[in-house]
Amino acid sequence: MDHIKRKEVAFFGRITAGITHEIKNVLAIIQESSGLMEDILDVTEDNTFPHKDKFIKSLDRIRRQIQRGIDITTRLNWFAHSPDLSPTSLDLNEIAEKMVLLAFRFARLKNVVLESSPSDPPIVITSDPVFLEMALFESIEILLKAINTGGKITLSPRKIQNRCVLGIGYENAVLPKEDLPVQISSTERWASLQETMTYLGGAAKTFGPAPEILLHLPESIDD
Amino acid sequence: MDPMKILLVDDEREFVTTLAERLELRNMKVSIAMDGESALGFVENDPPQVVVLDVMMPGLGGLEVLEKIKSLDSKIQVILLTGHGATKDGIRGMQLGAFDYLIKPIDIDELIKKLNEAVKSMV
């Protein structure tokens, strides 16, 4: 990536990380305020507060939504810090797991379950986190674009013939084989994915009757 | 038993005042400071047992305040509050003598557990 592009990505990352920090401060204040209300309720006698149950339920809902907000901003913060680390040592299990959380909503819009299947032992490579995340996201998008609705996409890091591979596979138990999207490699997005993979020193390939995109990655981006 | 004496340091006024109320409901004696300079004033004039200190503050940063607290009175325990992307600050803080660090937003039960551990470690 040229210098000016890298500066642009880093700039977006820094601003986003700063904003997530601010959002977390807001969540921390809401958390402490609702926590204080719970504390006060705990020391209030039941018969002096006729709507105590409704209040407790409402506070519980606030607490769950705060946790949801914390989880979302944590993911966003992790993503925003990606440009700080380029190139760096990356655990493919960790990247796959985090990308599942980041792309979860995109899959949900098509009723697709998105999950990761970690490798044992973990595979660690030296690569560019922003481009690797982009390649994974482009792969998920290609599959989501090709299918109608339902099924499951699994991100599975593994070694094939001693080479590092990140598989992005689609399964749908109720769909007949002939209806599975096989032409994924002729799409415009596929060309964009190949471009990303070329930057990473690897290549994207398709595999199997139930389509799977295999991202072949070098152990080090400098190889 | 005397109440635990805590100093909360954070530039987010609503966060620090609400947290102080919650700790006071648990019979702790809590002071608050909104910046590093005021925190050091408390440490010199009315030293707490434990300081809960935000790392990211305008003016004197949390790690700088930690170093100054430790040079004023090494027995005072410091628990740092960091953001998710800043755990390295927490680790750095522990190298500088902090008792521990917590990631914001914090869980009150976890904070109380850490406060108790910090006070026990002073004995």
What does this structure look like?
The complex is a heterodimer of chains A (223) and B (123). Chain A is α+β, with helices and mostly antiparallel strands and 223 residues long. Helices cover 52% and strands 18% of the residues of chain A. In chain A, the strands form two sheets. Chain A has a five-stranded mixed β-sheet, with helices on one face. A two-stranded antiparallel ribbon of chain A has the order 1-3. The longest helix of chain A has 40 residues, at 3-42. The mean pLDDT of chain A is 89. Chain B is an alpha/beta fold and 123 residues long. A five-stranded parallel β-sheet of chain B has the order 2-1-3-4-5, with helices on both faces. The interface between A and B is medium-sized, with 24 and 16 residues.
Quick summary:
The complex is a heterodimer of chains A (223) and B (123). Helices cover 52% and strands 18% of the residues of chain A. Chain A has 223 residues and is an alpha+beta fold.
Topology:
The complex is a heterodimer of chains A (about 220) and B (about 120).
Chain A: H1 3-42, H2 52-80, E1 88-91, H3 92-108, E2 113-116, E3 124-127, H4 129-146, E4 152-160, E5 163-171, H5 188-199, E6 203-207, E7 212-217
Chain B: E1 5-9, H1 13-25, E2 29-33, H2 36-45, E3 50-54, H3 62-72, E4 77-82, H4 87-95, E5 100-103, H5 108-122
Parallel strand pairs in B: 1-2, 1-3, 3-4, 4-5
- Give the strand line-up of the largest sheet of chain B: 2-1-3-4-5
DSSP E strands of chain A, number: 7
Overall 3D shape of chain B: globular
Gyration radius of chain A (Cα, Å) is 22 Å
Mean pLDDT of chain B: 93
Which word captures the global form of chain A?
globular
Which structural class matches the secondary elements of chain B? alpha/beta
Helical proportion of chain A? 40-55%
Number of helices of chain A: 5
Distance between the termini of chain A: 16 Å
How many helices of chain B in DSSP terms? Answer: 5
Going across the major beta sheet of chain A, what is the strand order?
Answer: 2-4-5-7-6
Helix content of chain B: 40-55%
